[in-house]
Design a protein that fits this description.
The protein has 292 residues and is an alpha/beta fold. The chain has 13 helices and eleven strands. InterPro entries: Asp/Glu/hydantoin_racemase, Asp/Glu_race, Asp/Glu_racemase_AS_2, Glu_race.
C-alpha cells in the first residue's frame, strides 16, 4: 500500500489517444458499495481495465447535502479525468440522484448513473414497487419520479435506511442487530404487499441474504448495478470504445481514507486483498487551482 503524492503522474499507465478503447473505465462510490458494480463489470465486461475510487474519508454520502455531494463528485471526476478514463460509472445512488445531471455537461467523457437503469428494470417486472435507499436518495424521489415517468399506473413506496451503510462498512451483515434494523425498514413495504424491491444503494446487495430471508418469496429483487453495467456495455459499443482486442490491466484501487481498512473490507467481496492507494483529492484540487 502506498500514499498518493505530488509525482502521481509517474505511476499512471500511458494510453495512446489513437487507441481510446484501451483506456480504463472509472467507478466511484463512498466506500465498498461500488464493489457490487465492479463485480458486474468483471462478469459482463471482463476485458475492460478499471479504476475504482472509494471516498471513504467522507462516507456515508446518504446523509450529505446536495451541495456537498456536488463538490465531492466534481473533485472525484477531476481526478478521474487526470487518470485518462474513457467513461465513469457513478456506483453510488446518492450521487446519481443529486449530481449526475449537473456534472454531465462539465466533462468530456460519458458519465452513467444507477437510477434510470434500475427504474427501467423495475417497471418491467413489477406493479407494486418498493425502494430502499439512503436518506438523501429517498428524499430526492429520484426512483419514484423516473418509474412513474416510464409507467404511470404503478405504485411506488420509498424507505430511508440510514443505518445500512455504516453496518455494511463495519462488516456487521450477520449481526442480529442488522436483521432487527432490516426488519423495521422492510415492514412498511411488506405491509403494502410489494412485488418488487429496488436496492437504492450499491451497498445493499451485500445484505441480500438478510433481506431475502425477511421478504416474501414472490418479491423480486432489482440490483441496479446489473443494469448499469449492461447500459455501459451498450454505450461502449455505440461510441466504439469497447476494448475488444487487448487484455484488461489489473484493477487499480484508490481511496480518500485508510487504504488498509478498505483492503480488509474488500477481501470479503473480491476474494483477494487488493493493493490500495490513498489519494488526497483536496491536495489535487490545490494543484489544479495553481495550474489554472
Amino acid at each position: 500500500m502506498f500514499s498518493y503524492s505530488m509525482n502521481f503522474n509517474s505511476n499512471l499507465p500511458s494510453f495512446n489517444s489513437k487507441e481510446p478503447q484501451r483506456a480504463p473505465i472509472g467507478i466511484f462510490d463512498s466506500g465498498i458499495g461500488g464493489l457490487t458494480v465492479l463485480r458486474q463489470l468483471y462478469q459482463q465486461l471482463p476485458q475492460e481495465s478499471i479504476i475504482y475510487f472509494g471516498d471513504t474519508a467522507r462516507l456515508p454520502y446518504g446523509i450529505r447535502s446536495q451541495s456537498e455531494i456536488l463538490q465531492f463528485v466534481r473533485e472525484i471526476l477531476d481526478w478521474m479525468q487526470l487518470q485518462g478514463v474513457k467513461m465513469v460509472l457513478m456506483a453510488c445512488n446518492t450521487s446519481s440522484a443529486l449530481a449526475l445531471e449537473a456534472v454531465r455537461a462539465e466533462f468530456d467523457f460519458p458519465i452513467l448513473g444507477l437510477i434510470l437503469p434500475g427504474a427501467k428494470a423495475a417497471v418491467q417486472v413489477g406493479k407494486k414497487i418498493g425502494v430502499i435507499a439512503t436518506p438523501a436518495t429517498a428524499k430526492s424521489n429520484a426512483y419514484k419520479r423516473l418509474i412513474l415517468e416510464i409507467t404511470e399506473d404503478l405504485e411506488v413506496w420509498q424507505v430511508s435506511c440510514p443505518e445500512f451503510v455504516p453496518l455494511i462498512e463495519q462488516n456487521r451483515i450477520y449481526d442480529p442487530y442488522t436483521t432487527e434494523v432490516a426488519s423495521s425498514y422492510l415492514k412498511p413495504l411488506i405491509e403494502k404487499e410489494i412485488d418488487t424491491l429496488i436496492y437504492g444503494c450499491t451497498h445493499y446487495p451485500h445484505l441480500s441474504p438478510v433481506l431475502r430471508a425477511l421478504l416474501p418469496e414472490n418479491v423480486q429483487l432489482i440490483d441496479p448495478a446489473v443494469h448499469l453495467v449492461a447500459t455501459c456495455s451498450q454505450k461502449l459499443d455505440i461510441s466504439n470504445l469497447k476494448n475488444n482486442n487487448y487484455s484488461a490491466l489489473p484493477t487499480r484501487f484508490a481511496v480518500s481514507g485508510c487504504s488498509q481498512a478498505f483492503a480488509r473490507s474488500a477481501l470479503r467481496w473480491l476474494g483477494y486483498t487488493p493493493m490500495v492507494e490513498t489519494v488526497s483529492l483536496q491536495h489535487y484540487a490545490v494543484i489544479q487551482t495553481i495550474k489554472d
